[in-house]
Each structure stands twice: as structure tokens, then as C-alpha cells.
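Input/output pair, single chain:
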Amino acid sequence: MNTQGPTRIQKKNRAVILEAALDVFSTHGFRGSTVDQIAKEAGLSKPNLLYYFPSKEAIHASLLEQMLDTWLDPLREMDPEGDPLEEVLAYVARKLEISRTYPRESRLFANEILQGAPRIGEVLSTDLKALVDEKIDLLTRWMKAGHIAQVHPYHLIFSIWSLTQHYADFDVQVRAVMGDQDPFQSAPEFIETLYRRLLTPT
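Output:
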């Protein structure tokens, strides 16, 4: 039995395929993408691509698995021992940075959700829900202690997701409206001010 791991070339080709697939899926969605498109984008033959991934579904699943950790990490980092207001603002900043750094991954996730999450529905109802519930309990404790203003904690989380991910998911619209201005130059200050005013106890 061969117990050796993948070779350097195999690792490189897998990375090339996933990078190409990310471009294709984030542009065309899962249903509108084909193995042929991904192979062409990767500069590989279709049989060569299928040596590494048996199907479009397998490529998509691999991308989603990688993306979910990236997407959940900013919420995991919210520290129960930190300053409550600053911890929430830091989470907002991290989510905005994810949109700036990983716009294709954000659109990949958005496309999956718009299709009814057929491939990650179980993760949403288990891993994601458990993490969100944990942080909702933390936010609720902070609110009851008067450390941050009383707002609906679930809708607070939803609003952070919506506002920060908008810059990735609707990048074309944002840049069409703002023209030559880089939205990520002014967005961090605006969004921090918005949530600081919302959450500072009165």
C-alpha cells in the first residue's frame, strides 16, 4: 500500500485547479459552471483535472470546506475576556477585511446560500448555529451587564454579516457607484462609527 502523501506537483496542480474553480464558481455559480470551464481556466486538460477531482461537485465541496473555516474564524476570535464593545467592533473589522481579501470566496458562499445551501445546509444547522448561539449568549451577557447597548443579538449578527459582505458580494455595484474611490478606504471608519454609536450604552 502506498502511504506517501501527494507530491509537490500534485499539490501544485490541485491548488491551480481550486484557484481556477474559485474564479469560475464565483462568476457563474455552481449550476452555471462546468468542468470544461474550470479545466480551461486552470490550463489543464479535462482528463488531467479529473485525475485530481472526480467531479464538479468534488471541486466545489473542497472549496466550500476551505472557505467555511475562513468565514467562521472572525466570530470564533471574539474574546469573552476582552472589552465587550471593542470585541464587537474588532469582529466587524475582521468581517470587512474578509470581504476585502476574499471577495470570490464570499460570492461562492452567497451563491450557495441563494441556491438553498444544498451542499452546506448541514454545516449551517450544526457548526454555524452552535458557534452563533455561543456568541449570542456572550452578547446577551454583555448587554445585561450594561457593557453594550441592548439590541436584538441575532439581528446584530445578521446586520454585521449583511453590511460587511455587501462589499464583496455586490462589488460591481459598489464600484460602479463610487467610481474611482476605493470603498475599503472609507468603509472601515464609517462602519465602526455606525456600530460604536449603536452599541455604546446610554
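The CA atoms of residues 51 and 118 lie 25 Å apart. The chain has ten helices and no strands.
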